[in-house]
Structures are given as C-alpha cells and as structure tokens.
Amino acid sequence: MKYMMLINAASADAASQCTVEDWMVYDKQITEAGIVVASESLADLTTATTVRVGPAGDRSITTDGPFAETREVLGGFYVIDVPVLDVALDWAARCPGARGGGSVVVRPIADFGV
C-alpha cells in the first residue's frame, strides 16, 4: 500500500527543531529500508503561487504565496510503499518534521485500478 507523508513545519517563522544532519540520517534510513517511492523538499513558501478558477473555468485569480490562515507550512513529502498503515505511522513518527510543533500527515494513495 502506498502512503503519502506530508511534512508540515510548525510555521514559516518557527525555529527548526531538527538539523540538516537529522534529515540526512532519516532520508538514508527510509531509503535503505527500500520503501521510498518518491520524496521531495519544497522550495521556500515565498516562492508559492496560488491559482483560483472562476465559475466560467477561467484562471480568475493568481496570487503570490498561499496566504492561508494556518499555523503549519507544507515543507515536503515522502511517498512510501509499506504493507499496512501502522508501518507508515511508525516511519512518520521517526520523521524529523514531526518534532517541535511540526506534524506529518499520512494519507493512503488512492488506487483506481487503472
């Protein structure tokens, strides 16, 4: 079963609770476990652009940044392939992004049988 782990930092301004070395160790562990399907770190939040589509289907509003009222900022993701949700949750709990007010959201990837 494939699961996406969405890594959320506590906020754009919050000091990180982990080091680059923490991330390198975690990335090595999860890669060596042979369960990584894909993973990426996202560029800084200030590089984001939000697109909204109007009722007529036109690109009606484009703004710099997400500007959502949120305390968390999506910083990256892993897609992993593990047998059951509990294993995915164990990997999410080990993720440095889950520390210091951050969180890792685990969601199954939908399989439409196509």
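^ that was protein a. below is b, sequence first then the tokens
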Amino acid sequence: MPESERDPALLTTLREAMVTAVTDEKPAVRTAGPAGAARALRAGLTDRTPLSPAERHLLTEWLDRLADDA
C-alpha cells in the first residue's frame, strides 16, 4: 500500500484490539476501597490454601467484616 494511503492509527487500533482480546477487561474489584478488595479476596479464598483451618477461619472473619464496612 502506498504510504499516502496508509492509516497511521491502524497500528494502534490493532494493538489495542489484540490486547483486549487476550486480557480480561473486567476489574477484580468492582467497588473501590477496602470493602471491594475484601469481597474480591473473599471470593477467591478456597479450602486449597497453605493456611490452617484456624487461619482461614480468622481471615474469612476479617474479610467479611471489612466487606460489610461499605
């Protein structure tokens, strides 16, 4: 394609489309601040963790308290 017919914005548009296609655009935290972060961490907390059951229980209690503090 002759240089006079090239669209310089095409490369930027293509790059952004590629990044969007391979990344998740949804934020992990929907609500800004500690409450939103606590909800996101709580949602990701599973039984498969290096924490002991007592530590997991305590962490869950703290995250629940922070999440309710919105």
